[in-house]
């Protein structure tokens, strides 16, 4: 029996996995229980508003796959925890299929990824996991809790003309979400009573590994011109606060230990799903309908002409969506509706929010008519302008001393986690470049990627280009069938190509210069020797921080989907609250920023805006 099978055998279930029986109406109906919708539903319910929360999956918040940080990739590839989308990265199929992760379905139904597919294999694309249980993708992600740079919030304020989006105001909402465990209570700019714990990884575990410490020392010298004097100094430098209030924290080159949504008390995920369950257990008026796939937002005409959202239609059953590993086309499901007395809020995420809007007749007119969907509101921005970060993996073969990754009594790191809820397995291991000593493989997502490859001599480092400027991605319907996942194409390197590729190249140079400076022998194992680095980057790039498919902008501007109050253009009583509204990929990873906008949406609703 594998370690993952043993862990799965210890799964604890929490809550009912059947759909709740709805009453006639609720104040708010919210679709999606992730950092946007789930957090908003809990806040509204605590304030006394009745909320009906529609979640396509079940509740897996007590499952070790979601709790233990190092097992998050397994959760992201396990049916019942996640959906597996297959996306295109390029409009040119020849370029797309140069990726070693490109996946095909063979004639016998199995999946193949690689550069030499079997004859007759159906091209699917690049695997792109998304959370599909209570808490959404925040329950299966790597738990990075990095707040966006101040200029991201100021960009939204300037774009919309709404000063409440300036970073000083948005910091209030971040503080309301956070329970910071790594700075003294009362530290300016941090919250200490929120529902998401934030902590720092174990900098001492990095410094304790001799070769890792030598590499980090060289990085400090090259990036910050600091000569590190001993282990204590290195730990002190790594523990500087990336989410601090200092305005210049992103301006120069700094090396941080990455804040993570990890609870020190449990040594695992700080879970919005657990918080949602606690709100229900406390008797607040929050009803969760599990295993419920939203299929349409129902609207009706009004006296003043603009349609009004008043209800949501959904189907009840497990594994109803084609991205679910349990999907069965012959399965039937009961269709139900639930009414909203005040508003409908869509929080399905960057892929599912535009899909649901288009299924409801809200989106680009030509796209809707192509699928025979009556046009409720022509909003061309829905499903367009999608963005993401780029990640380009690099891997060295170098002498390291990693944990055994057997997750048993013979694994000292696992024993340490069991006894103290601390150590390397309590840390996402992100340094600056998402470095992961001891892991093999080429990074990214493909069938079976979560099978941990123990390669004691490997040091894998995805280089993340955070602030890209490529808004060419699209989410389009394949059909009017709500159970069928949409067609997704990020159209990589379509805009701002030279700037993005040059930045990745310089980052790779810095990484290998640091290795050179250590004097430790190493070989570049991946992406391998290449004369044309530009082509190599395009072949191996991947991503997992999709945003902007229903982007925020000036009210009434049809190049944008929602206004600064989260209201959908052209439809009353309908808002979107999730990562799809960011006008560009936030410089920080989207987890913390999405929790932040959810809190802002809550305040907006409480103000009656």
TrEMBL record:
Domain Glucose-methanol-choline oxidoreductase N-terminal: 349-363
Gene3D superfamilies recorded: FAD/NAD(P)-binding domain (3.50.50.60), Glucose Oxidase, domain 3 (3.30.560.10)
Claim: Signal is one of the keywords in the record: yes
The UniProt record lists the keyword RNA-binding: no
Signal peptide stretch: 1-19
One of the record's GO molecular function terms: oxidoreductase activity, acting on CH-OH group of donors
InterPro entries: FAD/NAD-bd_sf (IPR036188), GMC_OxRdtase (IPR012132), GMC_OxRdtase_N (IPR000172), GMC_OxRtase_C (IPR007867)
Keywords from the named record: Signal
Family matches, as Pfam families: GMC_oxred_C (PF05199), GMC_oxred_N (PF00732)
Family of the protein in this entry: Belongs to the GMC oxidoreductase family.
Protein name: Glucose-methanol-choline oxidoreductase N-terminal domain-containing protein
Organism: Emericellopsis atlantica
């Amino acid at each position: 029996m594998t370690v993952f099978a043993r862990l799965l055998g210890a799964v604890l279930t929490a809550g009912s996995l059947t759909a709740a029986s709805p009453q006639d109406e609720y104040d708010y109906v919210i679709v999606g229980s992730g950092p946007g919708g789930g957090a908003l539903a809990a806040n509204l319910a605590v304030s006394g508003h009745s909320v009906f929360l529609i979640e396509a999956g079940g509740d897996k918040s007590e499952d070790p796959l979601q709790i233990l940080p190092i097992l998050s990739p397994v959760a992201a590839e396990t049916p019942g925890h996640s959906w597996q989308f297959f996306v295109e990265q390029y409009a040119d199929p020849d370029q797309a299929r140069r990726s070693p992760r490109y996946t095909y379905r063979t004639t016998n139904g199995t999946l193949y990824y690689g550069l030499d597919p079997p004859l007759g294999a159906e091209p699917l694309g690049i695997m792109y996991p998304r959370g599909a249980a209570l808490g959404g993708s925040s329950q299966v992600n790597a738990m990075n809790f990095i707040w966006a740079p101040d200029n991201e919030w100021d960009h939204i304020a300037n774009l919309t003309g709404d000063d409440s989006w300036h970073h000083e105001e948005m910091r209030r909402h971040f503080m309301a979400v956070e329970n910071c465990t790594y700075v003294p209570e009362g530290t300016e700019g941090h919250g200490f009573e929120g529902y998401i714990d934030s902590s720092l990884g174990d900098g001492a575990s990095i410094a304790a590994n001799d070769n890792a410490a030598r590499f980090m020392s060289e990085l400090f010298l090259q990036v910050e011109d600091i000569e590190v004097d001993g282990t204590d100094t290195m730990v002190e430098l790594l523990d500087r606060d990336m989410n601090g209030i200092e305005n210049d924290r992103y301006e120069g080159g700094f090396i941080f230990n990455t804040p993570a949504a990890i609870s020190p008390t449990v040594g695992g995920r700080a879970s919005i799903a657990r918080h949602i369950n606690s709100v229900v257990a406390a008797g607040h008026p929050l009803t969760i309908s599990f295993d419920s796939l939203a299929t349409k937002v129902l609207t009706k005409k009004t006296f003043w002409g603009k349609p009004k959202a008043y209800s949501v239609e959904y189907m009840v059953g497990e594994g109803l969506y084609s991205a679910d590993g349990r999907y069965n086309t012959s399965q039937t499901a009961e269709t139900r509706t639930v009414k909203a007395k005040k508003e409908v809020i869509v929080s399905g995420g960057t892929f599912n929010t535009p899909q649901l809007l288009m299924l409801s007749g809200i989106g680009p007119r030509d796209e809707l008519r192509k699928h025979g969907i009556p046009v409720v509101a022509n909003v061309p921005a829905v499903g367009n302008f999608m963005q993401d970060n780029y990640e380009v993996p690099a891997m060295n073969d170098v002498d390291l001393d990693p944990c055994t990754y057997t997750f048993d009594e013979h694994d000292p790191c696992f024993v340490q986690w069991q006894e103290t809820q601390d150590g390397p397995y309590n840390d996402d291991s992100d340094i600056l470049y998402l470095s992961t000593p001891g892991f093999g493989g080429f990074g990214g997502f493909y069938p079976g990627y979560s099978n941990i490859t123990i390669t004691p001599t490997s040091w894998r480092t995805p280089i993340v280009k955070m602030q890209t400027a490529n808004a060419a991605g699209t989410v389009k319907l394949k059909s009017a069938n709500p159970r069928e996942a949409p067609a997704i194409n990020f159209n990589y390197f379509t805009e701002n190509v030279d700037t993005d590729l040059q930045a990745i190249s310089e980052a790779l140079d810095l990484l290998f210069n640091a290795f050179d400076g250590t004097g430790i022998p190493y070989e570049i194992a991946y992406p391998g020797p290449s004369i044309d680095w530009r082509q190599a980057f395009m072949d191996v790039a991947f991503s997992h921080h999709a945003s902007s498919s229903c982007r925020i902008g000036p009210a009434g501007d049809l190049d944008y989907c929602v206004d600064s109050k989260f209201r959908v253009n052209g439809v009353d009583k309908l808002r979107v609250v999730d990562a799809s509204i960011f006008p560009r990929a936030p410089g920080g990873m989207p987890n913390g920023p999405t929790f932040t906008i959810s809190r802002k949406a809550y305040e907006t609703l409480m103000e009656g805006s």
